[in-house]
Amino acid sequence: MAPGKLIRNTREAMTLADLAGQLLEWWEAGNQFRVDHDGSDFRRVQQWNNGTGSWDDITPPTIIDVTAAGGFLNLWSGSLGGPVSYVDGDAEVTYFQQEFINGSDALMFDAVGGHVALYGLVQCLDSNISTASAEAGSVYLADAPDTTPANAHLFQFGVDDLTLFHDPVQDKSTLNQVGLGAGQEPTTGPYTWGMRTGPLVQDLAGLTDVWDIWNVNEFFVYETGHNAWNQLTTVEDAFSADVVFDAPLQFLYEHLTANDLNEDASHDGHKVVLQYGGPGDLWGIPSEGVDLTGDAQPDRWYPVFSIADGVICGPTGTEYVIRGIEVERTLDEDPGGAPDLDITDAGALTLPDNSLYSTPVMGPRPVVQAPPAVINGELVD
Hints:
This protein folds into 3 domains: 4-8 and 99-230, no CATH class; 17-90, no CATH class; 249-321, no CATH class. A hairpin with a 4-residue loop joins strand 3 and strand 4 (42-49). The longest helix has 6 residues, at 131-136. It is globular, with a radius of gyration of 26 Å. The protein contains 1 helix and 24 strands. It has one helix at 131-136, and strands spanning 4-15, 24-28, 31-37, 42-49, 54-63, 72-77, 82-87, 92-100, 115-120, 153-158, 164-166, 176-177, 195-196, 200-201, 218-224, 249-254, 271-276, 282-283, 287-290, 300-303, 312-313, 320-321, 374-375, 378-379.
């Protein structure tokens, strides 16, 4: 068990034109917004209302001044699998393929004295964060003034405990565990669901500005918090070596009307990152909460679109065919209330009992004389 998880991010790009129609989330001064890109600007289109637990439309949408925001937007998208970044003036946004680091990862070969050194420049999580600080949104160290190693924030990632430590003196004489202090659990504010560092890299060479760190092809972030999903659980074998599992496949999928189970065109052309972990384990379609009881709180979460059987997809676009295992139908409410339905005498109806049931004759149970020949669609030798 580790109090957080280190995540490798491999850079991918999407043009602003391909981003059209998608909603992303953005935090500004403690407020949560949904934003879009209208072809010219990023705009705030909705704001989260903590009182009602729902999104309030912003009419008309307000334009985000990216320059005033520091020349950079740190966004989040369920469609693209998590963090999305935009640098002022670029014609594209960056999203990332993500992979969790455990003790068997190749990164561990770079360890010196049981730790891997990582540098951070912006959005570096502090250590021993109190509940009050987390609820107030104060969880980061001051951004580094430049990209020199001496002025950067140095962190040490432990090989044995898979925990990130701040190394303020840069000689390992003082190692402070990054994240919440012992027993601290924020219940309000932006970090109740956990917190993440900005990019962490092993080498600062080639960076001329602190924001350049977002443009490297590979970096790490550290997620931590008081929730179970912010922490890392790994499996070791009898020799205390980390058990290695195949990582899920990740690939960009473009949804088309022709691929939609309901022939719905509202998400035509939207691109999402799908992840496939094996039979029955495909995820990545964004979901939205639906209030079923009228209390302004989501009771169930539904995917915003469903993919039809037979759609071909995969890392190169042609390796896999999607087939639904379970399908749920949702009835639309009739606003007219079915006026022709007369239930006046429904209470006088006699309900059937089990006297009408007869046990089906299935024949004798077969004798199994060999192991199964096929498991999960795979032939077994």
